[in-house]
UniProtKB/TrEMBL annotation:
Family according to the record: Belongs to the glycosyltransferase group 1 family. Glycosyltransferase 4 subfamily.
Boundaries of every Glycosyltransferase subfamily 4-like N-terminal domain copy: 49-200
UniProt keywords, alphabetically: Glycosyltransferase, Transferase
Record keyword rRNA processing present: no
Molecular function as annotated in GO: glycosyltransferase activity
Keyword Nucleotidyltransferase assigned: no
Provenance organism: Paraburkholderia acidiphila
Protein known as: Glycosyltransferase
């Protein structure tokens, strides 16, 4: 029986807890909508599609902190949901590590409302995650955790191994960002039956079709937060080198963050760098991207590579997957859907990759643009939100 068929069946067989919401159809029939808590540290724009998809099946209550998100390069989002619960995230100054954090209101609402399910981000440094897992086990509320796994760690070490194995044991499912995330958890002994992959991606309302690309555009697009680890300064230097060598090349920078103002002041005299600041309108981003041949995130990249795929821009990223912010650069295939440069080779390696691209025939670049866009379409068939909604629904029916 498919998921869509299951949803068409009579609702009296659905699991219901005290938190289940009840609504009426036009005919007056009472439909039970399971209540799902969706817990995130903040709601980035790319998570709106996830919430919308969850809303189609469930009564969704979103838990997140919106304080100070703009300063970190995010837009303040107000998703459509049954309730948005503003939380506070505190660090524990008295502990040996200030990395231990607590997200308020999550545990108390689980205990007092007993939702049908909880979908929570899998950061094991959060005490609130562990309390949610324990409460879920005691109260028989299925808790699903969604995270990157241990792809960053060639050797997980004893404490990480214990933490992740325990988290997977307490959860009903660990939803992995990518197959590499899943393999990393299997490698430390987590049971494969509890691990499911929903490829981490985002959707954009206005992308760029490959047919719109000429393969000879002069631009390089950087899109993302201007943060520690973005490594945009070496990229500016490399674009400057190629510009001095006579290449028709311009760097277009979309994004803001803690280093935004400092970078704009420092490089204000560089005619080959165009700063747009934080742009959240997909149409405007697409318009800017049409001037570009490739995208590039030279530091620790993540979902920005998927955004570049959507714009038919083959991404340039470094070749050390464990050192990226997320596992998404693993979607890149060198020379086909994007390009690698040797991280250990520094600016020389990045410059060599850009020179290689700028010497490629236009038809080869158009082929790479088409392959990049095909990855975006594949990652969104179905979308991440649809995948997560199906996974939560399956957990409720288990």
């Amino acid at each position: 029986m498919t998921a869509s068929t299951r949803r068409s069946q009579p609702v009296e067989h659905e699991i219901r807890s005290p938190g289940t919401a009840v609504c009426e159809t036009g005919s007056g029939a009472r439909l039970k909508r399971p209540v799902v808590f969706y817990v995130q540290p903040l709601i980035a724009r790319y998570r709106i599609e996830v919430i919308e998809s969850l809303n189609r099946l469930f009564s969704v209550k979103v838990f997140a902190c919106s304080e100070g998100v703009e300063a970190n390069g995010f837009s303040r989002e107000k998703p459509a949901c049954d309730e948005f619960v503003e939380t506070h995230i505190a660090s524990f100054a008295g502990l040996p590590s200030r990395r231990i954090r607590m997200q308020s209101r999550v545990l108390s609402r689980i205990v007092f409302e007993r939702p049908d399910a909880v979908l929570i981000f899998a950061d094991v440094r959060y005490l609130s995650l562990w309390l949610a897992l324990l409460a879920g086990r005691v109260m028989r509320v299925p808790v699903l955790i969604h995270g990157q796994g241990l792809y960053r760690h060639e050797s997980a070490g004893f404490m990480r191994t214990v933490c992740y194995r325990l988290a997977v044991a307490l959860a009903v499912r660990y939803v992995c960002y990518t197959e590499a995330s899943r393999r990393s958890l299997i490698g430390i002994g987590c049971p494969p039956a509890k691990l499911v992959v929903a490829n981490n991606a985002l959707t954009v309302s206005c992308g760029v079709e490959p047919a719109a690309k000429t393969g000879a555009e002069s631009g390089v697009l950087f899109i993302g937060r201007l943060r520690e680890g973005s490594e945009i300064e070496p990229l500016i230097d490399v674009v400057g080198q190629l510009h001095a060598e006579g290449s028709d090349i311009t760097l277009h920078v979309i994004g803001d963050g803690e280093h935004g103002e400092r970078l704009k002041r420092k490089y204000s005299d560089r005619s080959y760098v165009v700063w747009y600041g934080a742009v959240f309108d997909d149409d405007e981003i697409a318009t800017i991207s049409r001037r570009c041949r490739v995208g590039c995130y030279p530091g620790s990249a993540g979902l920005s590579v998927v955004h570049m795929f959507a714009l038919s821009l083959p991404p340039i990223v470094h070749d050390r997957l464990p050192l990226h912010m997320g596992p998404e650069p693993g979607y890149v295939e060198d020379g086909r859907t994007g390009f690698f440069f040797g991280r250990d080779g520094g600016t020389e390696a990045l410059a060599a990759t850009l020179r290689r691209i700028w010497s490629m025939p236009a038809d080869e670049m158009r082929a790479a643009a088409a392959a990049a866009h095909a990855v975006y379409c594949q990652l969104n068939s179905p979308t991440l939100g649809h995948q997560l909604a199906e996974i939560v629904e399956a957990a409720l029916r288990a």
